[in-house]
Design goal:
Helix content is 42%, strand content 20%. The chain contains 12 helices and 7 strands. A 7-stranded mixed β-sheet has the order 3-2-1-4-5-7-6, with helices on both faces. α6 links the parallel β4 (115-121) and β5 (141-152). The chain is globular.
Length: 257
């Protein structure tokens, strides 16, 4: 994999802000993910300044929150425009980030075993070779480092597609026609991801479903008008099966041996 073959979002950077980060689904994702990240941080000594990589960190929301806590945060992305937005976000928050404009796989060549925590959210579903990509992430982790990995769930996509009666899309194997959209190119079967992590000697210590109910509401207006109640239900059930396996995204926390 290289910077030329992975999906680059320079062409739709502003669309991200509008269609993901500025929506109810984005707010749920932010809240649930941050709960898991706080749990990760609590496993380290409170006085320790951690070296953290946000791989494919996009517009830098998580990176800035971590930097505000006093950690040394590097954000890496193949999209220069995404990094420019991240720089604006950092300035607005009064924090400093380290910026790397490259593919994660290229970053691993010169920063191997450098980080206590590697965060990689909503990237795995955009790369062709999943196992190779995860192997690159592992080389960036210190011994006993922690991986925060969120990926687009194939089961959630299939379930939502059927509930919309989009049977032609199912029969086509969920292969999308237009490549330059926000619908990921390679939805991941959770069992495949767990297997790949096991092959790399990662120990999975937590799984969380991101948006286990939100996307399936029949009345979409309720996503906004009943958001507080919906968020509480998301928080209540997001770490329980069968809801994890039907979530639109799955967040895995894994420790590197």
């Amino acid at each position: 994999m290289s910077i030329n073959t992975d999906r680059n979002f320079d062409d739709i950077t502003s669309k991200f802000a509008k269609n993901i980060y500025g929506t109810t689904k984005g707010k749920i994702r932010e809240v649930i993910i941050w709960q898991d990240i706080e749990t990760i941080l609590h496993d380290f000594p409170s006085s320790q300044k951690l070296k953290i990589l946000d791989a494919g960190g996009g517009q830098g929301q998580i990176a800035c929150k971590l930097a505000k806590l006093g950690h040394d945060v590097t954000i890496c992305d193949i999209s220069q425009q995404m990094l420019e937005v991240a720089k604006i976000e950092a300035q607005a928050n009064g924090v400093d980030l380290n910026y790397r404009h490259c593919a994660v796989q290229d970053l691993s060549h010169d920063l191997s075993a450098s980080f206590d925590i590697v965060i990689c959210h909503a990237v795995l579903e955009w790369v062709v070779d999943g196992p190779d990509f995860l192997s690159s992430l592992k080389t960036l982790l210190k011994p006993n480092g922690v991986l925060s990995l969120m990926f687009y769930n194939y089961h959630g996509l299939l379930f939502r597609t059927v509930t919309l009666a989009n049977f032609g899309y199912v029969q086509a194997g969920l292969n999308k026609r237009k490549k330059k959209t926000l619908s990921p190119n390679y939805p991941r079967n959770p069992d495949d991801v767990y297997h790949w992590l096991g092959e790399l000697n990662f120990n999975i210590i937590n799984k969380t479903g991101i948006r286990v109910f939100h996307d399936y509401l029949v009345d979409k207006q309720k996503q906004q008008t009943r958001f507080d109640e919906l968020l509480e239900l998301e928080k209540q059930f997001c770490r329980q099966e069968p809801y994890i396996n039907l979530a639109r995204y799955i967040h895995v926390v894994a420790k590197c041996h």
